[in-house]
Amino acid sequence: MAIKYNLEKFGIKQAVKWISKNPDKNLIKLMDWVDKFAHGEFVGQRQAVRAAIEDENNAYHPLVNRIVCDMDNGVLTKFFTNFFLNANLIGWDRQEHYRDTYDCNVPWAILLDPTSACNLHCTGCWAAEYGNRLNLTFDDIDDIIKQGKEMGVFMYIYTGGEPLVRKKDIIKLCEKHDDCIFLCFTNGTLIDEEFANDMLRVQNFIPAISLEGFEEATDGRRGKGVYKKVISAMDLLKSKKLPFGISCCYTKANFESITSEAYYDMMFNRGALFVWYFHYMPVGNDASAELLPTPEQRVEMYRRVRDYRSRKPIFCMDFQNDAEYVGGCIAGGRRYLHINANGDVDPCVFIHYSNANIHEMSLLDALQTPLFKAYHEGQPFNDNMLRPCPMLENPEKLQEMVAKSGAKSTDLQSPESAEHLCSKCTHYAKDWAPVAEKMWEGSSNEKRYKARQEMLEAEKVRRREAEAEEKNNQEKA
């Protein structure tokens, strides 16, 4: 396995060298290489990447060229090695082995909070519910990553608090685990020249900078002068050929500005490679349900994102409306889980209930605790991929899982019951359901989703048959 890994890693390095010389020709060669080793799970993503490479009229074709031509060569090489080879090809096989062996979810990515502390005091931030005194030590995070890699997890995403309060430890972890990709949700205000140079040196750290819209909206929630600091950080990263993206939470109040074409163009022009949109979740005893988007706004969000994808060269994910591409809810370890700064292992960054703490049990044991098993057995929580969440669109299901599993609130400042949390979503879920049904049932999206699920199931059967045959041949030998 080590020899095979080194050969494949060498192949990626050579491919990246070739790409910079002739992107149009050699990117296709790289995709041929990826297809050779990839699995059925990623066929849709690979087809989309290939289309962006081969079709000059594809909206993402300029984005591909920007990545290849405007990103630091060492960072590009590390990204291809750690993301394509480790996180997706090598990692996936290990994850599938653990899924089959232990009959539980095994994540593709782990979100974790290095600290609950933050240098800002943003209005309505759910992270503030934890307080500001909790920290995972360097050794805690190091151990989580070691355990994760054993199971094939090479993607780690820092949340918080503000993760860059711990920037020195974060860089040391990047150095120690240089086979992993590290992403980070950050307010961006702590990104300075020294840290950008550290990013350039370690080559495996990518920030997703949170913005609320333009200056008035951002400063209104995060504090005066924050927008200008963030823009300065983006300009610095772009000047050093470092990759970064944007993270946006859309609410009833900021929906229009945060999804406008002018805002979208600003993100691209500043150098962002991706934007992740998150639907507002009313997490925390004091969180307001009044900020939940209306059904009309969510429909418009669905429309705008798909329109922009067809003509804007920046990769966009809308995590509430794009469930069809990942088969529904990805929490509970199905594709990701969350570990807070106290070590509690939550099924989701927005759902703060757990039976497990990383200080008391292994990561694998945590995935087999009652709440995580309930996620494993219950997913997808709805056959309509526009209603994926067990809290937001199916609030009765989260309450049932928490009650049956005996999970406790992991909010140490102001514990919130599942009943209280879900009561804030009941009206939203009721209003959204008929709209979602009308959009989903009989649509081309539903048909595409079903066809993809059938393909994935066939791929799983084929893989298991191949493994059984290989084991049988080994026993005969």
Brief summary:
This protein is of the alpha/beta class. The chain has 18 helices and 11 strands.
Please tell me about this protein's structure.
This protein is α/β, with parallel strands linked by helices and 477 residues long. The chain has 18 helices and eleven strands. The chain has a nine-stranded mixed beta sheet with strand order 7-6-5-4-3-2-1-8-9. A two-stranded antiparallel sheet has the order 10-11. Helix 16 crosses helix 17 (418-440). The longest helix has 33 residues, at 444-476. It is globular, with a radius of gyration of 22 Å. The two termini are 19 Å apart.
Features:
477 residues; alpha/beta; 9-stranded mixed β-sheet; two-stranded antiparallel ribbon; 18 helices; 11 strands
